[in-house]
């Protein structure tokens, strides 16, 4: 057994060299630590003479974004590796190939996706991804249906869920998404001009009731194996290809949490158009592209999930007339509520998004932040009344046109 320690670049090279079938035996390897996320080390190991490369991702025993005062279990590296293997089986081609998982050193060696761009950055640069809705709805429908009680043996699901008990990472979500934004917490971080908006969030009892109900679902509703952190920074993309990465927050939770994460990040980018679009016409077109994508994702997800249910549904009682429609209505409502919570946390909570924070002009940034907060709080407050994806889009459009 190797004692855990943070890897250095030479050790990452030695690990990568051991993976068979990637690098030529002769030929130097070079390595750069490229991790820019909140939690992990990420080494890019490449062989200039052949162009071959892999990623060695290692968990640190604390949250990198905060420091050693916030310890985190290394078990998340095992969870990430095992989630990727399940997702690859259920949604082939939509996650990176895993070459090796090491539990002692808490690293995963995986396919290098440098030919892709992180979707958040791609969107900021004006990228259009015509296959994204098709790909991400495949990923969501396949991974969520086949790990739910609808699509797998209910006994096997209970046994599988033991491998995805993820208390430290769930605690991050419980605090940073479902608690801290709604109180004057030390972890919160927001521009001074948002003080009044933040105080209104902290005082809004009706909003808190909806957040409490969503939080209860996150805590108790073990519906399917979630990715758990499916924002646009967890997606590598090109016009032809989509790869979902980083499922270290994976656990058995409510399906709408994953769908809501994707939609929330498209809506954050929608709010960011105050800056990223050149003029009013371009802004309206870009926003239309984003809301079309939101619509396409839900409609394709709904169709694919229902088709899987019809073809692979495991039991008789789940085929009771009316149950499928009721289930899908509740998924859409959860999607709206979780999307709202994920928008709000990115404006006033600990971890923000470049779509908003990289807006240089404070007045424009403030407008985008207020818009995001208005969209997020409306989605949270109205989630239990939502019956159609059009209502989610109308909320965003009515805020941006106000
Ligand atoms: C302390 S970690 C902050 C955030 O980064 C991750 O990507 C998750 O979204 C988490 O909430
Ligand atoms: Mg991540």
Automatic annotation (TrEMBL):
Broad class of enzyme this protein falls into: transferase
Pfam families per UniProt: APH
Reactions listed under catalytic activity: 5-(methylsulfanyl)-D-ribose + ATP = 5-(methylsulfanyl)-alpha-D-ribose 1-phosphate + ADP + H(+)
Domain Aminoglycoside phosphotransferase: 31-282
Gene Ontology terms for molecular function: S-methyl-5-thioribose kinase activity
Binding site for substrate: 229, 345
InterPro entries: Aminoglycoside_PTrfase, Kinase-like_dom_sf, Methylthioribose_kinase
Key word Glycoprotein present: no
Domain of life: Bacteria
Pathway: Amino-acid biosynthesis; L-methionine biosynthesis via salvage pathway; S-methyl-5-thio-alpha-D-ribose 1-phosphate from S-methyl-5'-thioadenosine (hydrolase route): step 2/2
Record has Cell membrane as a keyword: no
UniProt-annotated binding residues for ATP: 40, 57, 111-113, 246-248
Keywords (A to Z) from UniProt: Amino-acid biosynthesis, ATP-binding, Kinase, Methionine biosynthesis, Nucleotide-binding, Transferase
Assigned EC number: 2.7.1.100
Quaternary assembly: Homodimer.
Main function: Catalyzes the phosphorylation of methylthioribose into methylthioribose-1-phosphate.
UniProt family annotation: Belongs to the methylthioribose kinase family.
Protein known as: Methylthioribose kinase
Designated gene of the protein: mtnK
């Amino acid at each position: 057994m190797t004692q855990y320690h943070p890897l250095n670049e030479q050790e990452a090279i030695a690990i990568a060299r051991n993976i068979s079938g990637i690098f030529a035996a002769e030929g130097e390897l070079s390595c750069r630590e490229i991790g820019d996320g909140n939690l992990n080390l990420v080494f890019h190991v490449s062989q200039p003479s052949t162009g071959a490369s892999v990623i060695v991702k290692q968990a640190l025993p604390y949250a990198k974004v905060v420091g050693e005062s916030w310890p985190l279990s290394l078990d998340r590296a095992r969870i990430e590796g095992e989630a990727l293997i399940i997702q690859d089986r259920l949604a082939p081609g939509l996650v990176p190939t895993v070459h090796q998982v090491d539990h002692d050193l808490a690293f995963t060696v995986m396919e290098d996706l440098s030919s892709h761009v992180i979707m958040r950055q791609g969107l900021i640069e004006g990228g259009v991804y015509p296959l994204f809705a098709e790909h991400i709805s495949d990923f969501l429908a396949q991974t969520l249906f086949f790990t739910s009680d609808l699509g797998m043996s209910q006994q096997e699901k209970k046994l599988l869920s033991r491998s995805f008990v993820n208390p430290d990472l769930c605690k991050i979500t419980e605090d940073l998404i479902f608690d801290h934004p709604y109180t004057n917490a030390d972890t919160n971080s927001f521009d001074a001009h948002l003080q009044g908006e933040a105080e209104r969030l902290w005082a809004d009892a009706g909003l808190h009731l909806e957040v409490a109900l969503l939080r209860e679902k996150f805590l108790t509703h073990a519906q399917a194996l979630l990715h758990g952190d499916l924002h646009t920074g967890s997606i590598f993309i090109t016009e032809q290809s989509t790869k979902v990465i980083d499922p270290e927050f994976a656990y058995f939770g409510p399906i709408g949490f994953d769908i809501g994460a994707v939609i929330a990040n498209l809506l954050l980018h929608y709010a960011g158009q105050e800056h990223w679009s050149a003029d009013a016409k371009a802004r309206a077109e870009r926003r239309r592209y984003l809301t079309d994508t939101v619509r396409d994702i839900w409609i394709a997800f709904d169709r694919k999930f229902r088709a899987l249910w019809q073809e692979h549904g495991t039991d008789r009682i789940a085929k009771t007339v009316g149950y499928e429609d009721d289930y899908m209505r509740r998924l859409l409502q959860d999607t709206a509520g979780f999307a709202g919570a994920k928008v709000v946390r990115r404006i006033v909570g600990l971890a923000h998004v470049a779509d908003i924070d990289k807006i240089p002009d404070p007045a424009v940034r403030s407008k985008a932040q207020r818009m995001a907060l208005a969209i997020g709080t409306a989605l949270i407050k109205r989630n239990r009344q939502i019956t159609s994806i059009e209502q989610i889009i109308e909320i965003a459009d009515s805020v941006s046109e106000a």
